[in-house]
Design goal:
- By secondary structure, this protein is mostly beta strands.
- The protein is 12% helix and 40% strand.
- A hairpin with an 8-residue loop joins strand 7 and strand 8.
- The radius of gyration is 20 Å and the shape is globular.
Protein backbone atom coordinates (compact mmCIF):
# COMPACT_ATOMS: atom_id res chain seq x y z
CA UNK A 1 0.00 0.00 0.00
CA UNK A 2 2.83 2.41 0.85
CA UNK A 3 4.41 1.85 -2.58
CA UNK A 4 1.09 2.50 -4.31
CA UNK A 5 0.67 5.75 -2.38
CA UNK A 6 4.11 6.91 -3.54
CA UNK A 7 3.27 5.91 -7.09
CA UNK A 8 0.01 7.85 -7.07
CA UNK A 9 1.62 10.91 -5.51
CA UNK A 10 4.48 11.03 -8.01
CA UNK A 11 2.17 10.41 -10.96
CA UNK A 12 0.13 13.43 -9.87
CA UNK A 13 3.19 15.61 -9.26
CA UNK A 14 4.66 14.47 -12.56
CA UNK A 15 1.54 15.65 -14.35
CA UNK A 16 1.95 19.07 -12.76
CA UNK A 17 5.59 19.10 -13.83
CA UNK A 18 4.52 18.39 -17.40
CA UNK A 19 2.49 21.55 -17.46
CA UNK A 20 5.44 23.58 -16.21
CA UNK A 21 7.81 22.43 -18.95
CA UNK A 22 6.24 24.09 -21.95
CA UNK A 23 7.80 27.42 -22.87
CA UNK A 24 10.22 27.32 -19.94
CA UNK A 25 13.52 26.76 -21.76
CA UNK A 26 15.94 29.59 -22.45
CA UNK A 27 16.51 30.97 -25.93
CA UNK A 28 18.32 28.49 -28.17
CA UNK A 29 17.01 25.41 -26.37
CA UNK A 30 13.59 23.82 -26.81
CA UNK A 31 11.78 21.50 -24.42
CA UNK A 32 8.73 19.56 -25.51
CA UNK A 33 6.70 16.57 -24.48
CA UNK A 34 7.01 13.69 -26.93
CA UNK A 35 6.30 9.99 -27.21
CA UNK A 36 9.34 7.78 -27.66
CA UNK A 37 9.81 4.02 -27.81
CA UNK A 38 6.26 3.34 -26.70
CA UNK A 39 6.46 5.64 -23.65
CA UNK A 40 3.96 8.51 -23.99
CA UNK A 41 5.49 10.80 -21.36
CA UNK A 42 8.97 11.69 -22.57
CA UNK A 43 10.70 15.04 -22.80
CA UNK A 44 12.94 16.15 -25.63
CA UNK A 45 15.58 18.85 -25.06
CA UNK A 46 17.38 20.21 -28.11
CA UNK A 47 19.53 23.12 -29.22
CA UNK A 48 18.77 22.37 -32.87
CA UNK A 49 21.94 20.32 -33.41
CA UNK A 50 21.82 17.71 -30.66
CA UNK A 51 18.87 16.29 -28.75
CA UNK A 52 18.38 14.31 -25.58
CA UNK A 53 15.19 12.43 -24.67
CA UNK A 54 14.27 11.28 -21.17
CA UNK A 55 11.22 9.27 -20.24
CA UNK A 56 9.20 9.97 -17.10
CA UNK A 57 7.21 6.73 -17.35
CA UNK A 58 10.14 4.78 -15.81
CA UNK A 59 13.63 5.52 -14.61
CA UNK A 60 15.27 7.94 -14.30
CA UNK A 61 16.44 6.96 -17.80
CA UNK A 62 17.85 9.10 -20.59
CA UNK A 63 16.86 6.92 -23.50
CA UNK A 64 18.25 8.93 -26.43
CA UNK A 65 21.19 11.20 -27.15
CA UNK A 66 22.33 12.11 -30.63
CA UNK A 67 22.39 14.55 -33.50
CA UNK A 68 18.94 15.71 -34.60
CA UNK A 69 17.63 13.40 -37.33
CA UNK A 70 20.42 10.85 -36.89
CA UNK A 71 20.88 7.54 -35.08
CA UNK A 72 20.71 7.19 -31.33
CA UNK A 73 24.20 7.04 -29.85
CA UNK A 74 22.72 4.95 -27.02
CA UNK A 75 21.62 1.32 -27.17
CA UNK A 76 17.87 0.66 -27.14
CA UNK A 77 16.64 -2.76 -26.01
CA UNK A 78 13.65 -2.91 -28.34
CA UNK A 79 11.80 -5.69 -26.50
CA UNK A 80 11.73 -3.59 -23.30
CA UNK A 81 10.87 -0.17 -24.73
CA UNK A 82 7.49 1.10 -23.61
CA UNK A 83 7.22 -1.32 -20.70
CA UNK A 84 6.24 -0.12 -17.23
CA UNK A 85 5.51 -1.72 -13.89
CA UNK A 86 6.57 -5.12 -12.66
CA UNK A 87 9.06 -6.31 -10.09
CA UNK A 88 11.92 -7.33 -12.38
CA UNK A 89 14.77 -4.96 -13.18
CA UNK A 90 15.04 -4.00 -16.87
CA UNK A 91 18.03 -2.45 -18.58
CA UNK A 92 15.89 -0.59 -21.21
CA UNK A 93 19.04 0.99 -22.67
CA UNK A 94 20.19 4.61 -22.60
CA UNK A 95 21.70 6.15 -19.48
CA UNK A 96 20.85 5.28 -15.89
CA UNK A 97 21.91 6.02 -12.31
CA UNK A 98 22.84 3.29 -9.84
CA UNK A 99 24.52 3.26 -6.44
CA UNK A 100 27.78 1.37 -6.02
CA UNK A 101 29.20 -1.03 -5.01
CA UNK A 102 27.17 -3.47 -7.10
CA UNK A 103 25.17 -5.98 -5.08
CA UNK A 104 22.00 -7.98 -5.58
CA UNK A 105 19.27 -7.17 -4.80
CA UNK A 106 20.14 -3.65 -3.67
CA UNK A 107 21.60 -2.32 -6.92
CA UNK A 108 18.93 -3.92 -9.10
CA UNK A 109 15.96 -2.07 -7.69
CA UNK A 110 13.24 -2.15 -10.43
CA UNK A 111 12.96 1.47 -11.58
CA UNK A 112 9.75 0.81 -13.50
CA UNK A 113 7.51 3.54 -12.05
CA UNK A 114 6.64 7.11 -13.11
CA UNK A 115 8.83 10.05 -12.08
CA UNK A 116 8.34 13.63 -11.07
CA UNK A 117 9.53 16.15 -13.69
CA UNK A 118 10.42 19.78 -12.95
CA UNK A 119 11.98 22.48 -15.07
CA UNK A 120 14.20 25.47 -14.30
CA UNK A 121 15.48 27.39 -17.31
CA UNK A 122 17.36 24.93 -19.54
CA UNK A 123 17.35 22.22 -16.88
CA UNK A 124 15.00 19.26 -16.65
CA UNK A 125 14.89 17.63 -13.20
CA UNK A 126 13.92 13.95 -13.02
CA UNK A 127 13.08 12.73 -9.51
CA UNK A 128 12.39 9.10 -8.68
CA UNK A 129 10.22 8.06 -5.72
CA UNK A 130 12.46 6.75 -2.90
CA UNK A 131 13.35 3.11 -3.35
CA UNK A 132 11.17 1.15 -0.94
CA UNK A 133 13.91 -1.39 -0.18
CA UNK A 134 16.84 1.01 0.32
CA UNK A 135 15.39 4.45 1.12
CA UNK A 136 17.61 5.96 -1.60
CA UNK A 137 16.06 8.49 -3.99
CA UNK A 138 17.66 8.94 -7.42
CA UNK A 139 17.61 12.26 -9.26
CA UNK A 140 19.04 13.34 -12.61
CA UNK A 141 19.25 16.93 -13.89
CA UNK A 142 19.70 17.54 -17.63
CA UNK A 143 20.93 20.85 -19.03
CA UNK A 144 21.50 21.35 -22.77
CA UNK A 145 23.89 24.07 -23.84
CA UNK A 146 22.39 26.57 -26.31
CA UNK A 147 25.81 27.16 -27.89
CA UNK A 148 27.67 23.81 -28.01
CA UNK A 149 27.07 20.09 -28.51
CA UNK A 150 27.13 19.66 -24.76
CA UNK A 151 24.80 18.29 -22.09
CA UNK A 152 25.48 18.61 -18.37
CA UNK A 153 24.15 15.63 -16.41
CA UNK A 154 23.96 15.96 -12.63
CA UNK A 155 23.32 12.73 -10.72
CA UNK A 156 22.04 12.91 -7.18
CA UNK A 157 21.49 10.23 -4.52
CA UNK A 158 19.40 11.27 -1.52
CA UNK A 159 19.09 9.14 1.60
CA UNK A 160 15.42 9.21 2.54
CA UNK A 161 15.81 6.21 4.85
CA UNK A 162 16.39 5.92 8.58
CA UNK A 163 19.99 4.64 8.59
CA UNK A 164 23.38 5.81 7.37
CA UNK A 165 24.39 4.13 4.11
CA UNK A 166 27.82 3.93 2.46
CA UNK A 167 27.62 4.23 -1.31
CA UNK A 168 28.81 6.04 -4.42
CA UNK A 169 26.89 7.52 -7.33
CA UNK A 170 27.38 5.36 -10.42
CA UNK A 171 26.54 6.76 -13.87
CA UNK A 172 26.18 4.10 -16.58
CA UNK A 173 25.75 4.90 -20.27
CA UNK A 174 24.76 2.01 -22.55
CA UNK A 175 26.28 2.71 -25.96
CA UNK A 176 25.02 1.39 -29.30
CA UNK A 177 26.99 -1.57 -30.67
CA UNK A 178 29.81 -1.43 -33.16
CA UNK A 179 32.14 1.13 -31.59
CA UNK A 180 34.99 1.19 -29.12
CA UNK A 181 35.65 2.85 -25.77
CA UNK A 182 38.75 4.88 -24.92
CA UNK A 183 40.27 5.38 -21.46
CA UNK A 184 43.43 7.49 -21.15
CA UNK A 185 46.50 6.05 -19.50
CA UNK A 186 48.23 8.23 -16.93
CA UNK A 187 51.02 10.46 -18.34
CA UNK A 188 54.31 8.65 -18.75
CA UNK A 189 56.83 9.22 -15.94
CA UNK A 190 60.23 7.56 -15.92
CA UNK A 191 61.35 5.19 -13.19
CA UNK A 192 63.94 7.75 -12.13
CA UNK A 193 61.25 10.39 -11.59
CA UNK A 194 58.64 8.38 -9.73
CA UNK A 195 58.82 5.13 -7.78
CA UNK A 196 55.19 4.86 -6.67
CA UNK A 197 52.24 3.65 -8.80
CA UNK A 198 49.99 6.21 -10.49
CA UNK A 199 46.61 4.43 -10.58
CA UNK A 200 44.87 1.09 -10.02
CA UNK A 201 43.72 -1.25 -12.78
CA UNK A 202 40.85 -3.39 -11.50
CA UNK A 203 39.81 -6.73 -13.00
CA UNK A 204 36.66 -8.78 -12.49
CA UNK A 205 36.52 -12.57 -12.16
CA UNK A 206 35.40 -12.86 -15.79
CA UNK A 207 37.93 -10.37 -17.23
CA UNK A 208 40.15 -11.97 -19.87
CA UNK A 209 43.09 -9.70 -20.67
CA UNK A 210 43.87 -11.80 -23.75
CA UNK A 211 40.42 -11.16 -25.24
CA UNK A 212 40.91 -9.53 -28.68
CA UNK A 213 38.48 -6.74 -27.84
CA UNK A 214 41.05 -5.20 -25.48
CA UNK A 215 43.99 -3.04 -26.51
CA UNK A 216 46.31 -2.36 -23.56
CA UNK A 217 48.27 0.50 -25.05
CA UNK A 218 51.00 2.80 -23.84
CA UNK A 219 48.77 5.89 -23.88
CA UNK A 220 45.22 4.48 -23.96
CA UNK A 221 43.21 1.42 -23.09
CA UNK A 222 40.68 0.54 -25.79
CA UNK A 223 37.72 -1.84 -25.60
CA UNK A 224 35.85 -2.77 -28.79
CA UNK A 225 32.20 -3.82 -28.84
CA UNK A 226 31.83 -6.91 -31.02
CA UNK A 227 28.32 -8.30 -31.77
CA UNK A 228 29.91 -11.69 -32.49
CA UNK A 229 31.54 -12.13 -29.08
CA UNK A 230 29.06 -12.80 -26.29
CA UNK A 231 31.41 -13.32 -23.34
CA UNK A 232 31.25 -10.27 -21.05
CA UNK A 233 34.36 -8.23 -20.34
CA UNK A 234 34.88 -5.59 -17.67
CA UNK A 235 37.71 -3.53 -16.22
CA UNK A 236 37.93 -0.53 -13.93
CA UNK A 237 40.43 2.31 -13.77
CA UNK A 238 41.49 4.88 -11.21
CA UNK A 239 41.33 7.37 -14.07
CA UNK A 240 42.57 10.76 -12.85
CA UNK A 241 42.46 12.39 -16.31
CA UNK A 242 38.73 13.09 -16.00
CA UNK A 243 37.51 11.80 -19.37
CA UNK A 244 36.36 8.66 -21.18
CA UNK A 245 35.04 8.34 -24.73
CA UNK A 246 33.23 6.07 -27.20
CA UNK A 247 33.82 6.22 -30.96
CA UNK A 248 31.38 4.83 -33.51
CA UNK A 249 30.77 5.46 -37.21
CA UNK A 250 32.62 8.76 -37.30
CA UNK A 251 30.95 10.13 -34.15
CA UNK A 252 32.71 10.63 -30.83
CA UNK A 253 30.81 10.60 -27.53
CA UNK A 254 32.91 12.10 -24.75
CA UNK A 255 32.32 12.29 -21.01
CA UNK A 256 34.21 14.64 -18.76
CA UNK A 257 34.04 14.34 -14.96
CA UNK A 258 35.92 15.63 -11.94
CA UNK A 259 38.50 13.51 -10.16
CA UNK A 260 38.82 14.17 -6.43
CA UNK A 261 42.41 13.53 -5.35
CA UNK A 262 42.66 11.74 -2.02
CA UNK A 263 39.05 10.52 -2.05
CA UNK A 264 38.14 6.87 -1.62
CA UNK A 265 36.45 5.42 -4.70
CA UNK A 266 34.53 2.12 -4.92
CA UNK A 267 35.73 -1.13 -6.49
CA UNK A 268 39.33 -0.78 -5.27
CA UNK A 269 39.57 2.83 -6.41
CA UNK A 270 37.69 3.02 -9.72
CA UNK A 271 36.55 6.32 -11.21
CA UNK A 272 35.85 4.78 -14.62
CA UNK A 273 34.63 1.33 -15.65
CA UNK A 274 33.97 -0.35 -19.00
CA UNK A 275 31.69 -3.33 -19.63
CA UNK A 276 30.80 -5.03 -22.88
CA UNK A 277 29.03 -8.08 -24.30
CA UNK A 278 27.54 -8.90 -27.71
CA UNK A 279 24.67 -6.39 -27.32
CA UNK A 280 26.31 -3.17 -26.13
CA UNK A 281 29.14 -1.43 -24.34
CA UNK A 282 28.73 0.53 -21.09
CA UNK A 283 30.80 3.64 -20.34
CA UNK A 284 30.63 4.21 -16.59
CA UNK A 285 31.92 6.81 -14.14
CA UNK A 286 31.70 6.85 -10.34
CA UNK A 287 31.77 9.37 -7.51
CA UNK A 288 33.81 8.88 -4.34
CA UNK A 289 32.30 6.71 -1.64
CA UNK A 290 30.33 8.58 1.02
CA UNK A 291 28.68 7.68 4.31
CA UNK A 292 25.29 9.18 3.61
CA UNK A 293 23.32 10.01 6.73
CA UNK A 294 19.50 10.24 6.67
CA UNK A 295 18.62 13.36 4.68
CA UNK A 296 22.10 13.50 3.15
CA UNK A 297 22.82 13.93 -0.57
CA UNK A 298 25.75 13.08 -2.83
CA UNK A 299 26.18 14.55 -6.31
CA UNK A 300 28.10 13.34 -9.35
CA UNK A 301 28.34 15.46 -12.52
CA UNK A 302 29.18 14.42 -16.06
CA UNK A 303 29.60 16.72 -19.06
CA UNK A 304 28.66 15.02 -22.33
CA UNK A 305 29.96 16.10 -25.73
CA UNK A 306 29.18 14.80 -29.19
CA UNK A 307 31.41 15.36 -32.21
CA UNK A 308 30.95 14.59 -35.90
CA UNK A 309 33.52 13.68 -38.53
CA UNK A 310 35.98 11.99 -36.19
CA UNK A 311 37.11 8.99 -38.29
CA UNK A 312 39.17 7.53 -35.47
CA UNK A 313 40.36 3.92 -35.61
CA UNK A 314 40.96 1.58 -32.68
CA UNK A 315 44.68 2.32 -32.79
CA UNK A 316 46.74 4.43 -30.41
CA UNK A 317 48.13 6.75 -33.07
CA UNK A 318 44.68 7.46 -34.48
CA UNK A 319 43.24 8.13 -31.01
CA UNK A 320 46.08 10.49 -30.14
CA UNK A 321 45.73 12.43 -33.40
CA UNK A 322 41.93 12.66 -33.60
CA UNK A 323 40.51 12.29 -30.08
CA UNK A 324 42.90 14.30 -27.91
CA UNK A 325 42.09 17.59 -29.73
CA UNK A 326 38.41 16.97 -29.00
CA UNK A 327 39.19 16.30 -25.34
CA UNK A 328 41.01 19.63 -25.14
CA UNK A 329 38.17 21.43 -26.92
CA UNK A 330 35.63 19.91 -24.54
CA UNK A 331 37.62 21.07 -21.54
CA UNK A 332 37.30 24.64 -22.77
CA UNK A 333 33.55 24.23 -23.43
CA UNK A 334 32.58 22.92 -20.00
CA UNK A 335 29.94 25.23 -18.56
CA UNK A 336 29.89 25.05 -14.77
Amino acid sequence: MRGKMWLSLFTFIGALGTLALHGAAEEGVTMEKVAFGGWPNCYRLSNGTIEVIATTDVGPRIIRFGFVGEENEFKEFAAQLGQTGGEEWRIYGGHRLWHAPEERPRTYYPDNSPLEARVEGNTLHLIQPPETTTGIQKEIDLTVSPRANQVTVVHRLRNQGMWTVELAAWALTVMAPGGFAIVPQEPYVSHAERLLPVRPLVLWGYTDMSDPRWTWGQKFVLLRQDPNLAAPQKAGFGNTQGWVAYARQGHLFLKRFHYFAGATYPDFGCTTELFTNDAMLEVETLSPLARLQPGGVITHTEHWFLFKEVPVKAEEGSVEALVLPKVEAAEEMVED
